[in-house]
């Protein structure tokens, strides 16, 4: 490549690609494939959940009814809003509005942190109620099936909480990574790294965030809403 | 059964042998016949869809014969005859504990008579093991927390290796023993050699000692279902499902009573997890099975399940 | 239809002054490289280290099994030895070897690209592999694990005292190495093919790596989460697989085998890809049935996900599940058989030479056929009940893993050695090694089929005396096999200094990788090639008249 040719292309173009479009397509496809691996990763836990919920429905329902549905619902709303801010960030990047982009990225991170803080309160509540699996676990609540109080095997309920912590914990880990990612992007965006000609990292990070959001949208009803009435 | 497995094996050996020989020969012959030589050029051949289809479809149908024959044998292996003699097996690191219905227990040896169907009801006290008798061509994993079964009919007296075939720790390779097959009269003699209580007798004593009889009564309707005639019959559960009251159901009901409650009954039975050993569980299960014919004094009294789970029968409370 | 670069025939190209090997001599230029070829070499070195480590454990196993008693080492030690042998060979050799060494080197070259789509992620892949390797080595040095490479629960979650979590972490990290490699290959093959290189013109090695990559990205995350759940159960006593807590040890097996069965297709598919390249070059012919071989690779990848419970026929699954999985398992035999038939048919009316790579290809066809056919024995329910968990299974998988994967790898390594290093290996020694490997292999593992059928279970430290003769035969074969593996180590290293200098295309082979220098320059091609020909266009490439590659 000649010196003039070198100057002519976007500095973000990596040399092993023929052109910017090939690079963008490659990055996009790569991100989608990575998301597929994330789905398979969480899939194993969803599979375990499915098997055990079928086997121990009453215990799972009893455990689910002890979760804090308000915190869960607020968190769901927080995440959905954060996905909106992500979309708006991508739109701002495409329009070249640097400050708006940074703003939306920062708001996304703040919403993510809000999610994690609320989650922290939830976990603390679980700890106080002795619902953390292990030697301190103790469960005496019953499954409220429309007024009918059905006692459940605490061992099976412990299994529910094991899956609850495993699945929400893994999700929270992905949220932390997402917050870190978006913080980094916000800094780079502030420094002017992203232009309408190149904002692929914003798009791809957005895809990641949306997936983590969607995973929560499945987790919430499966964990929090088993047999909840009125 | 072993000879059937061998017959299938020989059939597969022949097919595999022929296939292998054909491929080896083909490669050898072609490699020599078409070796690089001056003036000889390779002829470009794209392929032949007809050939592809032929050599896909024909092997597939040959393989179907493997599947069908194998499935038939497997089906027979996994359906024990209804009247088989039962023997309980408890596996633990690193030994096999065997309990005959008549009460004899053995370690690492299983005495059986020729000509009788034997059904092993097996569970593990710790990790997964596997009961493997090469001479019978049979194997079944033995799991903690549930029963698995294996059945056979020995035909020739002798001593046959018993191996553990699922890796289970340090002495996995030392967890062996013998199946001792005897002529019926020798077996009877061996049996008579020890005077012990039959397994269901032990179970009956436990049934009373552990307080089961308080709720599971035979004379009047107690807090728990009357267990006479329950074994191996369909049971309507309070959530609407119907299950068969097999060994696993009886065992589960003792260890985890709220899991599958018979319709019309309250979930008041305490769990016996940690209170009964595997051997005691086997005895209790054997006892409940023996109640398949109603014990004296209970004729005519059957449990009345509710017609629908939403309206459980009003029960005598406390 | 002329190619855009004319291969020189008689006048050899001297080793180019600047190629990927001498473009930067510092350690940093190697450890921070993003050049896929250098990364491939880094993998070659690390994978070879682990191969010999795993092989060392194999030697210990075979030595112990010379006698029926356990007299060489304690039972616990033996259990750790076979576990480490399995873990290292599966996760640190068989799964990465062909994609990470040959695939990394060749995929961009074969499609006319300058590098893979994500060179930095490629380097990250290697580092993840190394970190996983360091962790597993640490585990070995501080007591090892003794669960078998399959680490079934509840033994692995609650009964063993060995370092399961650390070993699990090592495998978890190495798994991500695999995922990123697969991701890289898929994007590269989709987005970076040279102009004119349509899917139906791709070398079948590319198709094979593509299919493998699909399995890598879909299957590996499942074993990753399984490892996480096992670790969580061990560390926090959460009891996900614990029957006393209402858990199910069989759920572990389902989750484990959901990956580990497709994993074996990750191992074999790339090797099958290599065989395509070897058979065509050394018969001077197009492959017979290109489309069918390409599609069979995809079919194997897809079907591979549907058959996992054939590892569980006696585990306590229901009769009906067993019937279904047995039936589905037979389906997968068809595409594999189709490949073998197509390769054999390619020989017909070819012009065949017996260079070492071709000998390995022949060996592959024979041994993979045997291994694959014995897989049918295992798919047959009535037989599986008898032979599962015995040496029959051990023999089966060694036939496909060693007789298949390893032969394909060695054949490929010999074939592309001149391209990778610019040197020729010594042909006579290589042929001798190939022979030793073939003979040693069969002597080691064929007796094990018999051992299994007569009833010797696997993972046995001690065994009844009647099994000794076959065990001794097996160990004898293993020593021959070991010699067959050590020789290439020696002569490959020797060739780096003293081997004859290679041409850009010493085999007169088709494929874009041969249209650039040996070794290639860092950016692979001076100009992006434009492809106007079909794969394996051997009718347009004149063969060398000599039997061995040109050397100067």
List the helices and strands and how they pair.
The complex is a heterotrimer of chains A (230), B (318) and C (552).
Chain A: H1 3-8, H2 20-55, H3 57-65, H4 69-95, H5 98-128, E1 142-145, E2 148-151, H6 154-190, H7 200-224
Antiparallel strand pairs in A: 1-2
Helix pairs in contact in A: 2-3, 2-6, 2-7, 3-6, 4-5, 4-7, 5-6, 6-7
Chain B: H1 2-33, H2 49-77, E1 85-92, E2 95-100, E3 105-107, E4 109-113, E5 117-124, E6 129-133, E7 138-142, E8 148-153, E9 158-164, E10 177-182, H3 184-192, H4 199-209, H5 212-215, E11 234-236, E12 242-244, H6 247-255, H7 278-290
Parallel strand pairs in B: 1-5, 4-10
Antiparallel strand pairs in B: 1-2, 2-3, 5-8, 6-7, 6-9, 9-10, 11-12
Chain C: H1 27-31, H2 36-64, H3 75-94, H4 97-111, H5 119-141, H6 155-159, H7 164-191, H8 204-236, H9 249-283, H10 290-303, H11 319-347, H12 356-379, H13 381-387, H14 391-421, H15 427-453, H16 468-498
Helix pairs in contact in C: 2-3, 2-4, 2-5, 2-16, 4-7, 4-8, 4-14, 5-7, 7-8, 8-9, 8-10, 9-11, 9-12, 9-14, 10-11, 11-12, 12-14, 12-15, 14-15, 15-16
Q: Can you tell me the overall shape of chain B?
A: elongated
Bin the helical content of chain A: over 70%
Q: Give the strand line-up of the largest sheet of chain B.
A: 3-2-1-5-8
- CATH architecture heading of chain A: Up-down Bundle
Structure commentary:
The complex is a heterotrimer of chains A (230), B (318) and C (552). Chain A is built from 7 helices and 2 strands, in the order αααααββαα. Chain A is mainly alpha-helical and 230 residues long. In chain A, strands 1-2 form a two-stranded antiparallel ribbon. In chain A, strand 1 and strand 2 (148-151) form a beta hairpin. In chain A, helix 2 crosses helix 3 (57-65) and helix 4 runs antiparallel to helix 5 (98-128). Chain A is elongated and about 75 Å long. The model of chain A has no long low-confidence stretch (mean pLDDT 91). Helix content of chain B is 34%, strand content 20%. In chain B, a hairpin with a 5-residue loop joins strand 11 (234-236) and strand 12. Chain C has 552 residues and is an all-alpha fold. Chain C has one domain (29-515): Cytochrome c oxidase-like, subunit I domain (Cytochrome C Oxidase, Chain A, Up-down Bundle). In chain C, 64% of the residues lie in helices and 0% in strands. In chain C, helix 2 runs antiparallel to helix 16 (468-498), helix 10 runs antiparallel to helix 11 (319-347) and helix 12 (356-379) runs parallel beside helix 15 (427-453). The chains are: A mainly alpha (230), B alpha+beta (318), C mainly alpha (552). Chains in contact: A-B, A-C, B-C. Chain A binds chain C through residues 14-18, 22, 25-26, 29-30, 33-34, 36-38, 40-45, 47-48, 51-52, 55-56, 59, 133-135, 153, 155-156, 158-159, 162-163, 165-166, 170, and chain C through 113-119, 121, 179, 183-184, 186-188, 190-192, 217-222, 224-226, 228-229, 232, 236-240, 244-248, 251, 254-255, 258, 523, 528.
